[in-house]
Amino acid sequence: MGPLKEATNVFDGPIIHCFCRFSGITCEMLEGVTTSLKDVQENFLKLVCKETILVGHSLENDLLALKISHESVIDTALLYKHPRGGSYKTALRVLAKRFLSREIQQSDVGHDSIEDAKAAMELALLKIRNGPDFGSPPSFLRRKLPTVLSECGKISSFIDNVSIIKRYASESTHAIPVSSDDEALLKAMKEAKNDRIHFIWTQFSELNSYFKKQAEDVERMNGQLAELISLLTCQKKSAKRKGIKCIMTSELKNILSRMNDRVHRLYSALPQNTMFIICTGHGDIAIVNRLRKMLTEQTATTLCREKLVKVLEELQAQAEVALCFVGVKN
C-alpha cells in the first residue's frame, strides 16, 4: 500500500492544480519530485501481477489515470448495489458509515488514500464473509407500495404522470394520470374527500422540470461546471463542508413559491387526523445525469474528465440527501 500511495503522488507534465481538496496532495509534497507516469506504471507492475486482486472503490477512475488495464478487480462501488439500481453508485463514505460505523473523508486537507483503501478492503471482506446478499437493499424495497397496502386491506390512489403510474401503480390502485402540478393538486384534493381511500400519493414535478431544463442548457451547464470545479479546491472552508449552493434565480423563487402554495392548499383540504407526509425525494439529479452522459460520451479531455468525476461525486452525494416532514392534522 505504501509504495502505491507514493507512486500516485506524482504526475506527468506541469502541475496545473494540486486539487488537494480530494487528493490530499499539497504542492509542497511534489517539490523536487521527478517521477514520471512511466515510472509509476513500472512500480505498479512490480507490485501487481496478473493474478493480483485489486480492491477499491470506483477503481476505473484510478486505472484510467494510470493508463493501466487489470482483469481481477473487486470494486465496492459495484459490490454494494445502490437502492435505485442501474448505474447509480453509493459513495464510499456512505458505505463506511452504514456498514463500518465510522466516518471517513472528513478532513479539510483532502482524502486519505490509506483510509479509503482500508474502508474498501473491509467492505469487500464483509461481503465475502457474509455472502453476496449482504448489504443489498431489503426485498420490501423492491415491492410496489400499492401492493403492500392492498395486502393490508388498504385502498390507495396514485396521482402522477403516466410514466410514474405505469411503473408503480398496481391493479388495486386508483391510477389517476395528470399532466401538471395544478391538475395533480385538484385531483389529490378530490381524492382526499373520498372516505374509501386510505392512502394518496401525488407529486409536484415543476421543480424537477426546471432542473432538467437548466441541465439541457449547454452554455449555462458549462459555466456552472466551471464554477463548481473552482469551488472544489483545498481551501479550509471547503465546498464539501458548506455544500454546493443552488443559484437562486427569480424563476426558481417563483417555482418554490408556487410549490409552497400547493402544499398549503392540499394540507388545508385534508380531513382531521390525516397524516400528511412530505418527502423531497432525491436532489438535483438532472445535472448528475448530464455529467454522466458527458463522461460516457467522452466529450472532455483527460484533465477535464478527472475534474468532472470529482464534481460528479460531490453532486451525486448531495443529490442522495433527502428530507421528510411528517405531521397529523388536528
Automatic annotation (TrEMBL):
Mind naming one GO cellular-component term on file for this protein?
A: nucleus
Query: Pfam families, per this entry?
Result: RNase_T
List GO molecular-function terms, semicolon-separated: exonuclease activity; nucleic acid binding
Top-level taxon of the source organism? Eukaryota
Which residue ranges does the record assign to the Exonuclease domain?
6-133
Q: Keyword Mitochondrion on this protein?
A: no
Q: Which InterPro entries match?
A: REX1-like_exo, REXO1/3/4-like, Ribonucl_H, RNaseH-like_sf, RNaseH_sf
Keywords of the record: Exonuclease, Hydrolase, Nuclease
Name listed for the protein in its UniProt record: Uncharacterized protein MANES_18G085900
**Organism name:** Rhizophora mucronata
